[in-house]
Amino acid sequence: MNFYITSGTNSFLSMIKKKHNKEEMTFMQNSQHSLLVHETAKKSKFQQPRSYKIIDQYGQLSDGSFASLNYIPVTDEGKPIFIYTYKNLSEKLDKAAGLQAVRVLEPFKSNTFVVLTVWKNEAYYKDWEATDSFENLKQTNNNQQILADPAYSAHYYIQNDEE
């Protein structure tokens, strides 16, 4: 399964989503910008997407209201270690309260993997951030020296169709 991300204005992304309403697309936004993500086994409907292969998944993105995207630049040598470590991430996180969905994404054209977690709401995510599970996950990358550059994250609110 493939995962595509594009960004743009709210109105432009809404137009794309409406045009392809039979596709599995999720609209996300924060105070700086908006994203539209597309999950499919086919080609993307986006003109210039960031393209990924899903290497682990759990749940439906539309089941939550808050998303955290962790961008993790990995060295070429570190890619197999990262994939091995994160391939079953959803099993490690399935007991986290409020977790609705997980996607671990391997890039087709870059070295920056994405770990996307979707939560029932922002409060559940904040509670999870204070757990040992979250701290252990952060340390996994640092201990294995697999980062090409510092990891970074962005947070979004999911806009469901009925909103």
From TrEMBL:
InterPro entries: ABM_dom (IPR007138), Dimeric_a/b-barrel (IPR011008), Heme-degrading_MO (IPR050404). The keyword Oxidoreductase applies. The keyword Oxidoreductase applies. PROSITE patterns: ABM. One of its GO terms (molecular function) is monooxygenase activity. SUPFAM superfamilies: Dimeric alpha+beta barrel. Pfam families: ABM. It comes from the Bacteria. Residues 66-156 form the ABM domain. Keywords: Monooxygenase, Oxidoreductase. PANTHER family: SIGNAL TRANSDUCTION PROTEIN TRAP. This is Antibiotic biosynthesis monooxygenase. It comes from Cytobacillus horneckiae. The lineage of its organism: Bacteria, Bacillati, Bacillota, Bacilli, Bacillales.
